[in-house]
Amino acid sequence: MDKLYLKNIVKRYDDWVLQMDLHVQSGEIMTLLGPSGCGKTTTLRIIAGFIHIDSGHLYLDERLIDDVPPYQRNIGVVFQDYALFPHLNVMKNIAFGMRMKKRYTKTQIRDRVEELLSLVGLEGYEQRYPDQLSGGEQQRIALLRAIAPHPEFLLLDEPLSALDFQLRKRLRQEIQKVQRQLGITTIFVTHDQEEALSISDRITVMNNGQVEQIGAPVEIYQNPKTEYVAQFVGMSNMLSGIILHQEHNCYVVQTPHQHMIIPAQQEYLVHDPITFFFRPEESYLSVTPQEKNTIHGVIVGQEYLGAEILTTIRSKDGQEYLVSNYIKDEHFIQQAGQAIYLNIPVNACKTVGPAARTSLNPGA
């Protein structure tokens, strides 16, 4: 059952329009993923009740909430800057929402705060103040404050963006653990692909106020529906061409400088234009051709990433491609200028469609 349904939501600005139709299932973490200005935070603020829509409807547990004020929606929000009260200690910060509702006893509030602090490993922090906490501890307290009053829904607006890489990894696991234990339906807003892939049950990829694709992390990464999703989520090598003919279950595609063989899709016909891609990690290098699809070029750059080497290959026509080689492929480490073959297995090639309609200027 849908916990939240955004039905044909439209919010217009002078030169930009947000259009959204979204089902969020009970108990899931739904991530809104996209670059700055794509409409993620606008969507979140519409759900919270901070922004009024021009048309469409919002339903929470099948109850229409279009005109329900923010304080009556029973939705918890964690902002990007945490917004902790500097003059209140941890106990009072977490308890703030419960006190505002005026239906909890002092004992209930104390027990709830202690229960939540124990959940995130911060027992004994009740009397500390925000300026005595690390960034990660502040993030935990902001999360606990949002969930203390037993909200029906939780909104997280880029809650980890101000933290360093290693701390972000730890805290996204902690957010997921807390969410699972409490069963709170959650919308998580981020521009970080890795964050979205690791924490989400489903991802909504957004672009200029439009939804490009909604799906499980594996589906979004392995089967992107549009060129935008393929390029935004992970790294991709894009190619375009014309279908010459079909051989068994494959198309033979004429790209600008060579033929490529890709899996056939029913919606395409001979002579149709087609765009497809392959991931860097699904291709490999060799000194002689190894696959039906090979691109001859030279190594023009490499990035050492620890477990892998990201190598840039430039073909004869000047096009550049990325290939991910693991350290075991020592033959291709630090060989700039070396002539090489980039091999692409047929099944690594996947077709994509055009991006969703774009607007003149992105909104916040």
Automatic annotation (TrEMBL):
GO cellular component terms, semicolon-separated: ATP-binding cassette (ABC) transporter complex
Gene Ontology process terms (BP): quaternary ammonium group transport
UniProt cross-references to PROSITE patterns, sorted A to Z: ABC_TRANSPORTER_1, ABC_TRANSPORTER_2
Listed Pfam families: ABC_tran (PF00005), TOBE_2 (PF08402)
Keywords: ATP-binding, Nucleotide-binding, Transport
One term of GO molecular function: transmembrane transporter activity
Gene3D superfamilies linked: 2.40.50.100, P-loop containing nucleotide triphosphate hydrolases
Residue ranges constituting the ABC transporter domain according to the UniProt record: 4-233
Official protein name in the record: Hypothetical sugar-binding transport ATP-binding protein
Native organism: Vecturithrix granuli
